[in-house]
Amino acid sequence: MNQTTPPASEYHLASLVAYCILSEVETVKLAIEAVEGTEIHATSAEGKIVFTIEGVSHKDIGKKMDIIRVHEGILNLSPVYHQFLDESQEESDDDNEKETALYHQVKV
Amino acid sequence: MTINRREFIKANAVAAAAAVAGVSVPAVASNLITSSDITKLKWDKAACRFCGTGCSVNVGVMDGKVVATHGDIKSPVNKGLNCVKGYFLSKIMYGKDRLTTPLLRMTNGKYDKNGEFAPISWDQAFDVMAEKAKDALKKDGPTAVGMFGSGQWTVQEGYAASKLMKAGFRTNNIDPNARHCMASAVGGFMRTFGIDEPMGCYDDLEAADAFVLWGSNMAEMHPILWTRLTDRRLSAPHVKVAVLSTFEHRSFDLADNGMIFTPQTDLAILNFIANYIIQTDRVNKDFVNKHTNFRLGETDIGYGLRPEHPLEQKAKNNGKTAGSSTPIDFKEYAKFVSTYTAEYVSKLSGVPEHKLEALAEMYADPKVKVTSFWTMGFNQHTRGVWANNLVYNIHLLTGKISTPGNSPFSLTGQPSACGTAREVGTFSHRLPADMVVNNPKHRAYAEKIWELPEGTIPPKPGYHAVLQNRMLKDGKLNFYWVQCNNNMQAAANINEEGYPGYRNPKNFIVVSDPYPTVTAQAADLILPTAMWVEKEGVYGNAERRTQSWYQMVEAPTGAKSDLWQLVEFSKRFNIEDVWPEELIAKKPSVRGKTLFDVLYKDTHAGSFSLDEIPEDRLNDESRHFGFYIQKGLFEEYAAFGRGKAHDLAPYDRYHKERGLRWPVVDGKETKCALKKVQILIVNLAVAGTSTVSQMVALLSLPYLTNRLQNLQMKNTTYGYQQVVY
Fold it and tell me: How high does pLDDT run on average in chain B?
């Protein structure tokens, strides 16, 4: 996993599926991992790579998508899920408040 | 295990993507997705607002703001995927320069065409607008008033606008920007089939053995459908993809047969394919004999420029006969296309002979199911209608049409170019459900549904999109309202026609937009508009799929939806302001009423109670006007098409479905169009067409039209609309 972008007031995350030419899957993976904020989570036998991109804005992630999607081994790059958090409040709050009001904790 | 908010989101996002890709993910993430209540996000479905594909997206709202979107796994269109445009869905609502107050050009507190934009209230804005509209009506009558709309209007907005213009102000000067992108597709449909609709649907993507892209960079412009095509190609090794373009683009990556051709020679290539089918004796004679006739189209038809333009002066058949044709028989047709040999067309187009033959063989081989896709390469072609007709020819010659996998399909660019612009008929010549203003029976039908006296709707088609800009420049169209458009950016001849038209001192220009676009800045009055899930609406996509969504968030304070603007503005007109006494005398009950009463509140559109809106739902327009206006307008509109092969389901059902493809008959949507044609034959007669036998003759015989190609065109790019990719 690559390092995420330094903290900013917004945290953005998108998940994507890259449809690859089967013989190119490994080089596409390297190309994805070379981009900051990416993480590969699964790869299918048909050559579909599931990965996420983190960033500080819509545009930030959009730019990273653009870097990846031009790879010749990718036939198609589809975003699936996008969400952002406004964390500008959080930085001024103490840990307790984060715990109750802004951080949503889940126990599995 | 405890994880924080970022990780929780990531786990959700990964689970969603993994489900789409059909791969397994670590158990932790899978478990998390079931605990989504903890995120405080409220999820609901909406149609994407960006293109004609018609994807469904899930929209996540937190604290009154859209903070998340993802492809809707339940949607048969996009099956959980999104594209890069859809990725930006939430961003587009929250730009720093969203407009929140009406802005009027003023000097010293008064309207001045040459003044600077200054904020005013909605009341003041409508005061000025109404005054200008009334002035124009008084001075030059209804033809001095007009509107430019869009395939991004919701169905209800387009319908309300059309009614306001055609019945309220009694002008046909309403046209959508869909005129720019869809006129050729519609022309092609009407000439060949007599009905404006695609005969296939997206299900063909999983059924076809071959795909041909004619002037469409589907990989980048319709990425979701391209994903489905890619999946089909990769999962079924026998599937072949041919791509034709005037330049190499991303779709060539998947092409088994990629072809770069000299501009305009696609027409010759299409005729070559027809010739190849005939020469190799693969015409589906049974189909051709039963369902087609042959016609020779008029040529030298000009370019739709101003009549005094030298090119129009030179053209011989650009008058009323431009769309005409004469009957020919199969032999004459075969003789005509026989000129288009592989050798000749290869020389014209620059495409090697073996590539042309491989392409033609796909269409000719009776065992191969072929789907043809095109976008603006055909539809903004200088001979766009011909290109559409010619591709239908090869599908009709082989009978490869309206069966799963066999489909000529025009991909649309706007979310509701089909649903609103075309089906509602927000055009200068149209009424809902393929009816036209110059047909007295169609006008009577509309007047009956609208409960208006005979003669309300003017019979003469109004100014279309291109003509509107010319008439603004010429000072004949003086009150002009633009919604859902950035036409100053997008239209042709803006320096010569559009901009001088907007700035003509005789005219008052209103532009409704969420942002200060160049079009807004060229206006005299800017109205701030609510967008997408800030209102309730319905879109119709390219495969006849009708989809609805609820309002999910409040618009920024001060911004109002196009629907609110249209209907609220109608309150400013008493019927006596807009209708002549002799028309009012035919229905005296309208006397003293406003257009709001006559067009909306006291009609079927106004007959649904607020109780029908779930209490926890936002609906700013309905609660303002006092009735469920989106449902009312939809139901009233649907009355035009029900029983006439354009059947829509009851409104409420769309809130529960990921869209339904019309006609919806006995509660079921329609995939295959042949069935539909039969329905049409039976039912159109009811709607006032003279005899059943005439309808059968017209509709059961889709005709092959073939066009003499003007080969001199190939070295010249003429005006009007350039070929845009």
Answer: 88
**pLDDT per position as a tens digit, B13-59:** 999 999 999 998 865 544 444 444 446 789 999 999 999 999 999 99
Beta strands in B565-612 (DSSP E): none
Is B34 near chain A, with CB under 8 Å?
no
Residue A55 · residue A37 · CB < 8 Å:
yes
- Please name the residue of chain B whose CA is at the shortest distance from the CA of residue A62: B84
- Residues B579-590, mean pLDDT to the nearest whole number: 97
CA distance A16 to chain B (A): 6
- Find tokens 């005296």 and name the residue: B588
Cα-trace Rg, chain B: 26
Q: Establish whether B181 is a catalytic residue.
A: yes
Q: What is the pLDDT of residues B62-98, one digit of tens each?
A: 999 999 999 999 999 999 999 989 999 989 999 999 9
3-state secondary structure (DSSP) of residue B88: coil
Chain B CA closest to residue A12:
B6
Given CB atoms, is B685 within the 8 Å cutoff of chain A?
no
**Distance between CA B721 and CA B177 in Å, rounded?**
13
Taking 60 as the threshold, does the pLDDT of residue B707 lie above it? Answer: no
Report the candidate in B468, B4, B706, B278 with the shortest Cα–Cα distance to residue A106. B4
pTM for the full predicted model: 0.88
Q: How confident is the model at residue B682 (pLDDT cuts 50, 70, 90)?
A: very low
Question: What is d(CA B663, CA B643) in angstroms, rounded to the nearest whole number?
Answer: 9
Strand partners, B104: B118, B525
**Residue among B703, B723, B708 nearest B301 (CA):** B708
CB distance B337 to B294 below 8 Å: no
Choose, from B182, B484, B552, B695, the residue flagged as catalytic. Answer: B182
A-chain residue closest to B17, CA distance: A80
Q: Which two tokens stand for residue B325?
A: 């044709």
Put simply, whether B656 touches A (Cβ < 8 Å) is: no
What would the pLDDT profile of B591-601 be if each residue is shown by its tens digit? 999 999 999 99
Answer for the pair A61, B13: CB distance below 8 angstroms, yes or no: no
The single residue of B55, B83, B165, B376 carrying the catalytic annotation is B376
Tokens coding B665: 């008959």
Strand order in the sheet with B65-71: A38-43, A48-55, A10-20, A74-86, B65-71, B56-62, B42-47
Determine the Cα–Cα distance for residues B642 and B334; give it in Å rounded to an integer.
Answer: 41
Q: Which of A72, A76, A106 sits opposite B230 (nearest CB)?
A: A76
Which chain A residues are closer than 8 Å to B82 by Cβ? 78-82
Phi-psi region of B402 (alpha: psi -120 to 50; beta: other; left: phi over 0): left
Share of chain B above pLDDT 90, in %: 71
Contact B71 A14 (CB under 8 A): no
CA–CA separation, B509 and B514 (whole Å)? 16
